[in-house]
Amino acid sequence: MPAVVIIGAQWGDEGKGKATDLLAGRIDYVVKFNGGNNAGHTVVVGDEKYALHLLPSGILTEGVIPVIANGVVVDIEVLFDELTALGARGVDVSKLLLSGNAHVITQYHRTIDKVTERFLGKRQIGTTGRGIGPAYADKINRVGIRVQDLFDEKILRQKVEGALDQKNHLLVKVYNRRAILVDEVVDDLLAYAERLRPMVADTALVLHEALERGETVLFEGGQATMLDVDHGTYPFVTSSSSTAGGAATGSGIGPNRIDRVIGIVKAYTTRVGAGPFPTELFDESGEFLRKTGFEFGTTTGRPRRCGWYDAPIARYTARINGVTDFVMTKLDVLTGLERIPVCVAYEVDGVRFDEIPVSQSDFHHAKPIYEELPGWTEDITGARTFDDLPANAQAYVLAIEAMSGARISAIGVGPGRDAIIQRHDLLD
Questions:
Q1: What is the CA angle 327-86-50, rounded to 5?
Q2: Out of 41, 103, 109, 114, which one is annotated catalytic?
Q3: Which reaction does it catalyse (predicted)?
Q4: Cβ proximity of 242 and 221 under 8 Å
Q5: Given 1.10.287.110, 1.10.300.10, 1.25.40.10, 3.40.50.2000, which CATH number is that of 103-194?
Q6: pLDDT digit string, tens, across residues 124-146
Q7: What is the pTM of this model?
Q8: For this structure, is 139 an active site residue?
């Protein structure tokens, strides 16, 4: 049985939760391997809508064991808030496993994230202010706090003291903020220790043993390829590895265990935060996509920047991740458009680029070269087979597939859990 990775193939918010939920009935473990509570999945189950920020969306499927692996940074307060909210709605959250090697977001990470972003002014990255970047920075600087540290007060205190020695100088002398006390951080974290203890496990070993038993493990990426710290539109990126390669380092399983990589794309493109976005629309078409697609962040509520589908980005993400299958979401949002432009290449200072320019400066100045495809007016939200789609909608999907570097195996046609067309088996 396979190990399957689901990743965002644009700038996030593509509907990864819906794809995970689609497969969850056939899998045994769902693993979050990167990021933190700076992104969210919205999953609609019947008449119920669930907004998840830190938990893997597979937690909504009975029988699946959800795992938060070592590559995640964990805001413990957010974790327990989500668990409590889901439990109150009848969701079984008792099976959740948390890696003892995952790093913890503390109050000083959140503070530094917010004041640093304000300090940058016009050079702001567009972070969510939830402490994700500073927590990852501490991890790389080897001054981070891990989940396992909460079970040894002496080690925890030493690590917090070491971290605050430097950070309080920064807060007080550069940002004119008050110093953060060691005791308040330690006391805050220790308050969660006993509640955390039952869910903490050697998750890398658990996942290895599951794969050895022939069970199916799904790795659910946060954010998306174009936000990856190595392969995204740096510096307007997240702080973790959100590509398929990140699933191995972020969970502790070997890369040779990964059988399939499923990339999620919208039928158009969106982005939250600053950074280049060649197909971004500033007219009524952009507003149409935003309103019709309800393009507002699950975590922040911020309106998303909207634009047409970008085929060079899809080809790039297919190559970087080794995508075997694409899932296209929100095809229904395009219903009613007479013509639908698709970006097939870029123009930079009179030069055509069929692939993403390697130079950041060139990509910032890239202008999209469009081909227009005919639209459709028929309601497609009830379609459940490819043949149910109107001819122009079918032609749009096939044209996108030919441009994007991998087959489109499933198509989302509405927000509901069952509003999806499967063209190919995602696990075959």
A1: 35
A2: 41
A3: IMP + L-aspartate + GTP = N(6)-(1,2-dicarboxyethyl)-AMP + GDP + phosphate + 2 H(+)
A4: yes
A5: 1.10.300.10
A6: 666 667 899 999 999 999 999 99
A7: 0.91
A8: yes
